[in-house]
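Thread title: Can someone regenerate the structure for this chain?

I was given the following input by a collaborator and told the matching structure tokens would be attached. They weren't. Posting the sequence so someone can regenerate them.
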Amino acid sequence: MLEKVKARFFLNVVVLSLIITFITSINYAESKRGVTDSTIKIGGIFDLTGPLVTTIKPLVEGIRNYTRYTNEQGGINGRKIKLTIEDDRYTISAAVAAFKKLVYRDKIFALLGPGSTGETRALMSQIMKQKLPTFPLAADRDVIEPYKRYPFMPLDTYDNEIGILFNYIIQTSKPKIPRITLCCVDAGVKVTILKAGKKWSKLLGLKIDTLLLPLTVLDTTSEILTMKRSKINYIVLAHNIPTASLLLKDSHRFKLDAKVFGTYSLTSEDIVKLAGKRSKNFFGVHPYSSWYDDNPGMAEVRKITLQYHPGTEKPYRSKNYSIGWVMTRLCYEGIRRAGKSLTNEGLVDALETFRNYDTKGICGPVTYTSKTHEGLKYDKVFQADSASGKLVPVTKWIKAPDIK
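Best answer:
Regenerated them for you:
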């Protein structure tokens, strides 16, 4: 009888040990999703063939080149990066499908993107549910506030950018009182832009008009004539690059002497290519340096990039190339800091140790904490120079005005 009790006790211990081992292995597997002894799977969701391809293409090139450089340097803590980028065509349905593929089939460890506000908002609940460290390009404060553990913003917010642009217009238009039209795309980002415009116009004592344009607008004649009658002399635009070029050309055609100010996604050398001499009236705000800027960080970016693509010094890569480079660098530096025993939660903890992370001039200092994942708060204002094809900084790194 005693022998039977001992045998049963031993059997129960063995079964219990197997159950604990099985449960532990499941939890371990979940926490190590996308990580093997030799690889780390990173995913990306961006518009590769839709209306934002002009903006996104250089950014994705920056991601690919920095990943290649990282792998050629031996990877991260002995592991190589396996990068998979999916096309969302600037549609929420395609972004959702891409997310499901990357998470459930490819089992990625972290996500770069999505590349726009609408897609990011649509996926945020799943990003949180999957506990997926993510670097979204939605420059929307609502993406990170109130504090959320898994999204890390790799650029400044639209809210700060609008504040910087309005304040710059006030400072440079004195003693005249500026007449401003805030123009944005009639899409997911409009709520954010209009909210920021209302906030900063009130704080700075401005009177502004607002205007919505469809994403694929082909003619702005009526809008330009309306602004001319209202004696508008500044247009602050959150839209796409072709629309900025169209406004510049139509303003000249109808003799509207208005300067066009773009948010970060418009602050690109492609404006100069499309608008030519008319681009002299274009200004933009951006949290990243240009391809040709003279600082140690951009010198390294050019050196590595041209090793992979010799003879491509020109045409100049846009500032969005710099975004792709740095957002990838931030992700991989976080992975390095998280150590050999890599988990999703460990990456988040590591990223939250960033304090004034220095990119040597590619952008301003980056800070993530356990209370905020805003990251960047510094931008420069640039002006287009049609003769050189460059965007020339007209300010140093500056923050949105501190007005209470």
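The longest strand covers residues 39-46.
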